[in-house]
Amino acid sequence: MTVTLEKSVEDFIATPRRLFIDGQWVEAASGKVFATPNPATGETLAQVAEADAEDVDRAVRAARRAFEGPWSRMTASQRGRIIWRIGDLIEEHAEELAQLESLDNGKPLSVARVADIPLAAELFRYMAGWATKIEGNTITLSPPFAPDAAFHAYTLREPVGVVGQIIPWNFPLLMAAWKLGPALATGNTIVLKPAEQTPLSALRLAELMAEAGLPDGVVNVLPGYGETAGAALAAHDGVNKIAFTGSTEVGKLIVHAAAGNLKKVTLELGGKSPNIVFDDADPELAIPGAANAIFFNHGQCCVAGSRLFVHESRFEQVVAGVADIARGITLGPGLHPDTQMGPLVSDEQLRRVTGYLDSGREEGARTVAGGSRYGERGYFVEPTVLVDTRPDMAVVREEIFGPVVVASPFADLDEIAAQANDTAYGLGAGIWTRDISKAHALARKIRAGTVWINCYNVFDAALPFGGYKQSGWGREMGHEVLEAYTEVKAVCAQLHT
Ligand code: NAI
Ligand code: MG
């Protein structure tokens, strides 16, 4: 038995979806379409137009016209009201969006209802407030070559222009919100490419954004593949900035593609985040906390707590507790009310994750829970706990992006800081202890963009998010993100009296 789909959802997936360019729904220039599968069954869920370079070019031109035209003529307050209204419309259509997200991505409907959809709505509301608060400074000048002159100098913060945004499939609507909200609040126009695995919620969002009053061309949504549409967007000379979330490998390709016109680049990439449990941690919090850190969203989180470090005196207890939770998780289709964990997003991810399970076993890791594909239909993987690993194993070094945690014991604070930082990544970290000095001292030593203490996966539109090292460039959310979507202009006037 599964949840009954809303009529609007059934209608939405029954009709082939098109590209959203300049406020119009259009076919791809090539006429091509692609299928987005239902990851719980592997069957086709919906047909979607497939954008390529020519469509990207049309969308970039439309975004330029909107940037120079209606969007820049609006007051900041008018823009802010539209952005706020987008948040309201997401909330009004929450159940519909949650169902689409669950169908397309595979995540439990219950999770989409409490996390993805409300967080997306809140992101737009938070960013709506910033629209009227983009400010420069006045600056006192003391030029040594003109000591008697008087100047009036100030800075303006201006939008970067036309922004390309390429997002992944793990939180389809929320990633669209993280990208669109700040770009709109700062007055940019956008060409958004959702992931080919999960284009549906971004297309529905485009309808809601038009309903909210966004002028034509301000946001264009182009579903398509990375190697074609994504690469064309990253390389396009008419794009002033590219914002990307996805694999570190593709992040590096984006940097190369952006070099042609030196467009600005921000990147939110992979992770291999340490989650550290001290001997004085409350096991009632730390054990479910460690399980949630890796199993939330099936481990398909850039910030997943995939390396669990436990003080040696508690290692057996914590690992046994996390393994118990893993074994107790109910797997099933996202729309089934009992489901606690859905399928991975795609056949490709199923093969990637089970490949890591094989490589871990071959290299000598011991499986305490899970360890295999689940069932024969859909892309399900058992929640898995691995121990007896070595720091050089692929399962310890590389991002698995599935429900797989490697656990190892540690002895003291200095050792754990070094182990936690022994990674090419630096996105997140968790610390579980009752000792506040120890917690904050370790938080300073960890080279990562987010450190959670006695919690994990707490996200808020006000909290900046992003990576050190190979986890990325720049920050999303908070006021920090506004810098990524604005240029600073210094204006200097001499006052002749
Ligand atoms: P990916 O990095 O290939 O895809 C992310 C986005 O980039 C998608 O929209 C895709 O179409 C686009 N893309 C792909 N190649 C491109 C190119 N050459 N130029 C421009 N855009 C391009 O990630 P994929 O293949 O879906 O997953 C592979 C691995 O990447 C995962 O196993 C995981 O480790 C990591 N990943 C990390 C994410 C994160 O949030 N940091 C999200 C998704 C994947
Ligand atoms: Mg890829």
Keywords:
2 domains; binds 1,4-dihydronicotinamide adenine dinucleotide; 497 residues; six-stranded mixed β-sheet; seven-stranded mixed β-sheet; 17 helices; Aldehyde Dehydrogenase, Chain A, domain 1; Aldehyde Dehydrogenase, Chain A, domain 2; binds magnesium ion; alpha/beta
- CATH topology of the largest domain, by name, is Aldehyde Dehydrogenase, Chain A, domain 1
Number of strands: 22
The total count of helices amounts to 17
Strand order of the largest sheet: 14-15-16-13-12-17-18
**Ligand inventory:** 1,4-dihydronicotinamide adenine dinucleotide, magnesium ion
Label the CATH architecture of the largest domain: 3-Layer(aba) Sandwich
What is the general shape?
globular
CATH class of the largest domain: Alpha Beta
Termini Cα gap = 81 Å
Rg is 24 Å
